[in-house]
Design goal:
mainly beta; 290 residues; 11-stranded mixed beta sheet; 6% helix; Jelly Rolls
Length: 290
């Protein structure tokens, strides 16, 4: 079951987080579903739980619950949106880049930023537990990040399923983090987080066998942004933001071989994202035909 981000008390018939309202998000009674499941499997009682579709999702944007028969959805069209340079003219950020279905077919200058472990970007909502969670306006974080923003949508776009990002990236350090966030940019400028993920460079290939990176070398990073269900409404934009921190949700990378728990001397790192014909950084979205 996939539902909207919910933090704090529920309203009758709707759940409101910040300036966003999710009508009837609380209409599904989770304990009733659990009880029927346990009654069937532990007590041998005949319930309808096994005849029902096995997947139930809350589609944000449309703000409806929808039953599905499989996950990911069989009708998914995985669609790449590529990073581009230039000026999107949509946000104050380190680069204000563009996001497009067109792959880069010419040389493009890479984008760089300085990551300082002593000044990480603070966590603003998201899938957190003890930190305030849910959708939040990330314009303050975008101002300190690399951003890639699409044109305004001409029609609604549904994204339902697992999301991943592919970065062609380089660092001046022997280790760094790459954080990626997908946001729904409203016509009034709010940049509302939808999904995010992280990879620590030393664990790029294996969590069991970490390997430091070579400074100045370009690596390919595959980053899991988990799953969501959101309809980006006509007139909205999609934005991908890239940085190396989201603290305290994820501990700071010290840009050294030391662990965050034992290291005492953090170092700054110059981190670079490539988006040219040979190194086309992009995000992969599970688009659902409507």
């Amino acid at each position: 079951m996939i539902g909207p981000w919910i933090h704090g008390p529920k309203n009758v018939g709707a759940t409101k987080v910040g300036a966003l309202t999710f009508p009837r998000a609380d209409a599904v009674q989770y304990n009733e579903i659990r009880l029927r499941w346990f009654d069937y499997w532990l007590k041998g009682m005949h319930t309808s739980v096994m005849e029902e579709p096995p997947v139930l999702i809350y589609v944000m944007g449309d703000n409806v619950w929808r039953a599905e028969r499989e996950w990911p959805l069989a009708r998914t069209r995985y669609t790449n949106l590529y990073f581009h340079g230039g000026t999107g003219g949509s946000v104050y950020s380190l680069n204000d880049g563009r996001l497009s279905v067109a792959a880069p077919d010419a040389p493009e200058h890479p984008d760089s930023f300085t990551y300082d472990p002593l000044h990480p970007i603070p966590t603003l909502g998201g899938n957190t537990l003890f930190i305030p969670s849910g959708p939040q306006d990330h314009r303050d974080a975008d101002a300190r990040s690399l951003t890639y923003t699409s044109d305004a949508l001409g029609s609604d776009l549904e994204v339902t399923g697992p999301i991943r990002a592919v970065l062609y990236a380089m660092s001046s350090a022997v280790d760094t983090d790459w954080t990626v966030r997908l946001s729904d940019v409203h016509p009034d400028g709010r940049s509302i987080n939808v999904a995010d993920g992280i990879v620590r460079a030393r664990y790029r290939d294996s969590r069991a066998a970490p390997r430091l990176i070579e400074p100045g070398r370009v690596y390919v990073y595959d980053i899991d942004l988990w799953a969501t269900s959101n309809v980006f409404k006509a007139g909205h934009r999609l934005r991908v933001s890239v940085h190396s921190s989201n603290f305290p949700r994820w501990d700071r990378n010290l840009s050294t071989p030391d662990s965050p728990e034992s290291g005492a001397k953090p170092e700054t790192a110059l981190n670079t994202i490539f988006h040219d014909a040979l190194r086309p950084s992009h995000i992969v979205l599970p688009v659902i035909r409507r």
